[in-house]
Design goal:
The structure is a homodimer.
Chain A lengths: L2 E6 L12 H11 L3 E6 L1 H4 L2 H4 L9 E4 L2 E4 L1 H11 L8 H31 L6 H23 L11 H11 L11 H11 L2 H18 L2
Chain lengths: ~220, ~220
């Protein structure tokens, strides 16, 4: 039974790798599990067929035989639990790696997504520019705390884990903002993530979808 | 070894139960694990002692012997994994329950927190009221999707799980907004959560902290 995930037929970021299927692709590449991809248009994502799998009309989903999952965090955790390579086996280190998955999604990513919302969905509102400065300040607080914690370490907690996969994925959203450059150890941490062969394969796979779409 | 969690000495919601320690208390009550609480002032939360446990200077933390965890989602998952009562044991249903934890935190809560930020932290900004209407519309979309999915079911996925604990906790943030009342099945779902004896004990315990503080 082959794992099947869903992804945007036409990624809004034009292949920059920020859609959440890249995170799932990366996890599957790290553990060496092959997968199929079913591409969905924005219209198809809101149709009954997809809503039966994903009640919020989003991508990615994950199908493996009878099991259907959505939520990138849950999918990656499920992959990490069933295959070696993304979570330590000892109770304590395992719980700490899982903790960093949640920290990436629930403490570091929210102000970053708030920035994206203000920049894109509220670009024509009169407050857009002024509010962007507020969100940037909130992001700087989180980055500063994360930077202090990481220090000179290579990864957040010993060896590379699903927690790093998620944190690097979240921080990658800031690449174009210049904010990451204010924290050199975080910029280097993200670069180490991007340098992993599994990440490179995941990135190339999602880029190929965009390239195929835009070629004549 | 007794589990110790941290909580606000002076909860910003004045005992309404919305601080995240209530979620952890609820999980511990569901599985019958006694716990101690260490209360922290806002100043103490930003001091080195606490930052060594929680690099983002937040509550709650969870200490059990040598293991220190932060992030409510990670703490509740750790509790659910080690004690019966919050996760099914079969692989598929277990993964689906974990999925709902992530859905609560990453899909349903973000627009709700955005509303809170706009209402509280940006109350004096010129855009506050207008932006509040935007966030409310975004919340309605998520609530509508969740309501459609829940239908007449008692809980999200078979029996009560950590996914429901988290989803009810997230929806409780909307009690004062009136938005929940637009979706009667969600309002009833939240009421079922609040009616659980474990939730009642957790709520009473956090309220007692506020009551003790404000009594002469």
């Amino acid at each position: 039974m082959t794992v099947t995930i869903t992804a945007f037929r036409q990624s809004p970021d034009r292949g920059a790798g920020l859609a959440r299927d890249t995170r799932v692709r990366w996890a599957l590449e790290e553990v060496g599990v092959p997968y199929d991809v079913r591409l969905l248009s924005f219209r198809e994502m809101k149709e009954a067929g997809h809503l039966a799998l994903q009640p919020f009309g989003q991508i990615p989903t994950y199908e493996d035989g009878d099991l259907v999952l959505f939520e990138t965090g849950a999918i990656i955790f499920h992959i990490a639990e069933r295959h070696a390579g993304l979570l330590p086996s000892e109770t304590g280190p395992r719980a700490r790696a899982i903790m960093w998955m949640f920290a990436a999604l629930n403490t570091v990513e929210p102000p970053i997504l708030d920035r994206t919302t203000t920049k894109l969905a509220e670009s024509e509102e009169p407050w857009s520019e002024q509010r962007l400065r507020l969100t940037d300040d909130r992001i700087r607080i989180r980055l500063g705390q994360l930077s202090d914690h990481l220090g000179d370490a290579e990864w957040l907690e010993g060896g590379f884990s699903a927690g790093d996969l998620m944190m690097v994925s979240v921080l990658l959203r800031l690449k174009a903002s210049g904010l990451l450059g204010e924290f050199p150890n975080l910029a280097a941490y993200v670069a180490r993530g991007e340098d992993r062969p599994a990440y490179k394969r995941a990135f190339a796979a999602q880029l190929a979808v965009f390239t195929a779409l835009s070629s004549p």
